[in-house]
Amino acid sequence: MTHAGAILREKMAKGVVMCPGAWNGLVAAAIAKTGFESCYISGGATANASGYPDIGLISLTEMCRTIREVVSASQLPVIADADTGYGEIESISRTVMEYESNGAAGLHIEDQEFPKRCGHLDGKTLISQSAMVEKIKFAVDSKQDKEFILVARTDARGTDSLSMAIDRGCAYREAGADMVFPEGLRSEDEFNTFAEECPGLLLANMTEFGKTPHLTAKQFESLGYNLVIYPVTMQRVAMGAIIRSLSLLHETGSAEVFESTMQTRQELYDTLDYVPGEPWKFKGT
Questions:
Q1: Which pLDDT value is given to residue 284?
Q2: Which partner for 226 in 12, 62, 111, 206 could form a disulfide, CB atoms 3.0-4.6 Å apart?
Q3: Cα–Cα distance for residue pair 277/280, rounded to 1 Å
């Protein structure tokens, strides 16, 4: 079988790839049905779905379970968040091997100290550049297949400056990272400058309510970015609808008033390729 990383590399060679975030198999199936070519798993969204914030508490085991579920349901190449790697350098090897063994096309690790914070919040601290370089080298050596995509994320724009983020990005690429992820850039000009001074495969994070202004996928492509993630977008949409509907249910005592906004039973079955009365085939990873 062709490695998922190779499939994603081929797609990125043809143009920018949009990568919406899924935190379970149902969302992943919907992403695939809508026509997207890749899927992303956010550590923050996965943690939120378990009832706690994005501070690095999600475990390797929990993320691998989610990877298996999302890969199976979507049959798409999946990039997964690995936060700071679930420990010091000794943990990196297992993280890479477990993510790859569970079907991920690639992962990203970041240069924050633990406990980490959302990349669009202030108050972060970073490990040294040299320590992150060692993590990346160890991760590269731990790949089972050279096509597995190792993404190095730097949060240096938020803790220092754009020039520091560029310096770190270049050092991480030199250490063997396949792709660089500059987190928290604040303008189209900053994305352009980063791409010009750190050439190679690049990932952009188009998250809402953060430091980055809304840019379209085509804008990112014109700036030199190959993959655009939307990590918590659909979860925010879903939770907004859930809270509004819960309020109406509590107020009126009936779901009838908002039934027209729901996904129908048939739409759910169509998303899952389920026909009542017929055997349902498990897709697997």
A1: 76
A2: 12
A3: 9
